[in-house]
Fold this protein.
Amino acid sequence: MSIQRILIYPEDCLKKVAQPIQDFGTDDLKTLVQDLLDSMYDAPGVGLAAPQIGVSLRVAVTDVNWRSEGAEKQHQVWINPEFLWKSEKTEITEEGCLSLPDMYADIERPSALRLRWFDVVGNVFEEDFEGFQAVALQHEFDHLDGKVFIDYVSALKRRMMVKKLKKKYFS
Ligand SMILES: [Zn+2]
């Protein structure tokens, strides 16, 4: 078990476009996935992307239900995820992020999508998602492109949030 420090925005790795995984099934990749899971459950959170622990690779984990009453842990691992389709229909959800503690904003995103991704050993999957899971996946995969949810809020609100984070964590 290896819990990693979760980076706080605007640390550099959170703003970089992450690289795709080329070699599947390696010990390094398995360790990265386990570190992500340990760190997500410890935080506690419902999703974590590799750049959030300082690793600029296209890997993320989620477990969107485990914090609900009576739910079991049931994680999913997403490697090199790619959106094949996003709905025109959108929905607004209040989002937060382990890399932006105590910050929340209503974010509008497509409410359904089709995804292709790989697992740790390189099997490829394709599936449709909707609702909270679709929102959570878009949030996590934004991290792989160096984006965070406050990139969708007004410039003024974003500046205020970044200022608060800098004051609290970097001064
Ligand atoms: Zn996040």
In short: The mean pLDDT is 97. The chain is about 25% helix and 30% strand.
